[in-house]
Amino acid sequence: MRRMILGLASLTILANTSWCQSSCTADLNDDQVINLHDLLALLVHYGDSCSPDMATYPTINISEIHYNPNSAQGNDSDWEFLELHNPHPYPIGLQDWSLQNAVSFSFSANDTIPEAGFFVIARNLDSLASVLPFDVPAKQWNAGESLNNTGETIELRAPDASLVMAISYEDNDGWVTEPDGMGPSLEWMDTGLANDQVDSWTYSLIFGGTPGAQNSMWGLSDPE
Questions:
Q1: DSSP conformation letters of 1-60
Q2: Residues facing residue 186 across a β-bridge
Q3: Domain ranges within the chain, ordered by starting residue
Q4: Residues 149-178: b if buried by 16+ CB within 10 A, e if exposed
Q5: What are phi and psi of 144, to 5 degrees?
Q6: CB contact set of 88 (below 8 Å; sequence gap of 6+)
Q7: Cα(39)–Cα(16) distance, integer angstroms
């Protein structure tokens, strides 16, 4: 106890001793001298954690799912794809972001989703590249994985593994049935709708969907 009192007394002496410095960052009350008032202000926060706040990440939406292409288009293994949409007026770097659950894919340092643009992840990029718009970024998910024709959950996770978006699609139970082998993809109906709600999803008006391009229903629905 005596040692603590002596320590505080020493701090008090130091706190009341001003010295010249180029920037008085310790002058917390801006009275041009570092004194006991500044020391007491610091003591109020004694023991506070200085760990950084939890990171926040921009919203990225899952905008299209082609889980069961029609046989007229070709095999599922050639034409299945997922599409991400960036709703922001700036590009988003995707390093260390990942897709999990339904398929597994980790984005690399060079992967970027353009402002108000799209990023496509395909089961077979060689096939899908033939219908992708020019300059749309695209990658192929892990070999041997596919989207379940009856439904499953697609998870988009940020670099710290926090869940940013999850879509649990199905081929029934309120979900439209046309994307289940009839030709169209399953598409997010409009950008003003909740991304993870069944009522926000419909079937594409385009056979095979619109990978890397604006969804066929955008601008035609009533977000309210």
A1: -HHHHHHHHHHHHHHT-----S--TT-TT-SSS--HHHHHHHHTTTT---PPPPP-----
A2: 65, 203
A3: 2-43, 61-207
A4: eebeebbbbbeeeeebbbbebbbeeebbeb
A5: 90, -10
A6: 58, 59, 115, 116
A7: 9
Q: Is the pLDDT of residue 186 over 60?
A: yes
pLDDT band at 55 (very low <50, low <70, confident <90, very high): confident
Q: Is the pLDDT of residue 190 over 70?
A: yes
Angle made by CA atoms 122, 143, 162, in degrees to the nearest 5 = 70
Kindly report, residue by residue over 3-42, the tens digit of the pLDDT: 444 444 444 444 444 434 445 667 656 677 778 876 776 6
**Pair 187, 206: CB distance under 8 Å:** no
Cα 127 to Cα 148: distance, rounded to the nearest angstrom: 19
Is domain 61-207 classified as CATH 3.40.50.80? no
Q: What is the pTM of this model?
A: 0.75
d(CA 188, CA 66): 12
Place of tokens 């992708």: 132
Distance CA 33, CA 18 (A): 6
| Tokens describing residue 167 | 């879509």
